[in-house]
Amino acid sequence: MSRLNRFLPAPIAINGIERVRACSGALIGIVITALVSRYALGNSNTLPFLIAPMGASAVLLFALPSSPLAQPWSILGGNVVSALVGILCARWIGDPMIAASAAVALAIAAMILLRCLHPPGGAIALSAVLGGPAVASAGFGFALVPVGLNSLLLLMAALVFNNATRRPYPHLPAKDHDNKHGTQDALPTDRLGFTPEDLDDVLKQYNQVLDVSRDDLETLFLQTEMHAYRRRFGEITCADIMSHDVVTAEYGTELQEAWTLLRKHNIKALPVLDRARRVIGIITVYDFMKHADLDLHESFDKKLKRFIRRTPGLYSDKPEAVGQIMTRTVRTIRNTSHVVELVPLLSGTGLHHVPVVDHERRLVGIVTQSDLVAALYRGRLNDQRAAA
Fold first, then answer.
1. What is the dihedral of CA 149, 150, 151, 153, to 10 degrees?
2. Which residues, 6 or more positions from 81, have their beta carbon under 8 angstroms from its beta carbon?
3. CB atoms inside a 10 Å sphere around CB 32
């Protein structure tokens, strides 16, 4: 029995909710495709209103929506191109057996060439050859109806269902992040461990089609590295390393008061809170410099003082309160999060301070780059002591 188990594939690592989601999506997608196609074609049409390869397409679109083989161009281009290849082979090759074999092989070649590899395309090419008189009489129209129509309807169902169930579709490749340092050096998070170039080299050596996108593969490897760091450094959370006594501001805090707080406490950022102590923004030294149009010249001090000084009267043509110049999009982190989750935030995004919030999203502390360095250093020392 143990020898037989070696030939069995590993269990699919998804929970029950994801299994129900995939099955429900396939059910809804096929029902919609069948109903609309039957209505569009009517009863007089000799062609089937739903072709069998759509079942295989449904597996990809709803069970593996992030697969490169399940993207919109893959299903539309792959199915239609394969149908055209099958029709041509049926017309040009007299022997059905040879025509069927050539259709599948040439369909694969065409899909690879056009970057629309879709496994059900092989079945569609085969159906175009062995479909009988109805397919033969339809000619090239078979590629449009029912193949193109079925593919388009199933794709539209997948677009709506996957996004409604929080599975982004189509699965777009990740954008290259800009180098925040303004130099040719790699970002700090890319200087240790594997690099994107390393992954590209390995994939070239592997030389096989993978049913997972390159970006997803890189993300999985990075998450694996983070998981390993977390195991090595122990359960150190943001609550363990954060500063609890946080100097804050409110939306209506005057600029002069906010600047005084920054200078008095020798800090570079003030979280901006509402009355429920939820973070609505953050104001930094950079915000002051950006809005005051400051640079290093002889009138720096005068320009800053003029900017932060309160304007007497009821009208002002310059910002007067923190809420007018603060950064509104604020990255926060939960107090129960592991410190390793701070690494990409404080090293690859240009952030120097991350407000820490509780389960109700109320501010409970703040973490800086110095706090993270100290925590990782402490974790490294503990790792060395344990090894000794």
1. 80
2. 107, 110, 111, 114, 116, 121
3. 16
**Would the CA dihedral through 13, 18, 20, 25 be positive or negative?**
negative
Q: What is the mean pLDDT of residues 327-344?
A: 87
DSSP secondary structure letter of residue 237: B
Q: Whats the size of the chain, residue-wise?
A: 388
Residues β-bridged to residue 261: none
| Beta-carbon contacts of residue 370 (< 8 Å; ≥ 6 apart) | none
* Residue whose tokens read 């599975």: 167
| CA atoms within a 13 Å half-sphere pointing along the CA-CB vector of 377 | 7
pLDDT higher for 226 or 385?
A: 226
On whether the CB atoms of residues 271 and 332 are closer than 8 A, the answer is no
**What distance in Å separates the CA atoms of residue 143 and residue 128, rounded to the nearest whole number?**
9
- Where would I find the beta strands (DSSP E) of the chain? 249-250, 269-273, 279-284, 333-334, 353-357, 363-368
Order of all β-strands in the sheet with 269-273: 249-250, 269-273, 279-284
The answer to whether 283 touches 249, Cβ cutoff 8 Å, is yes
Amino acid sitting at position 25: G
Beta bridge partners of 333: 356
Regarding pTM above 0.70, the answer is no
Write out the two tokens for 24.
Answer: 């429900």
* Strand, coil or helix: 278: strand
* Residue 265 in tokens: 């406490």
Reading the block at residue 331, the tokens are 């990255």
Q: Tell me what pLDDT residue 122 has.
A: 96
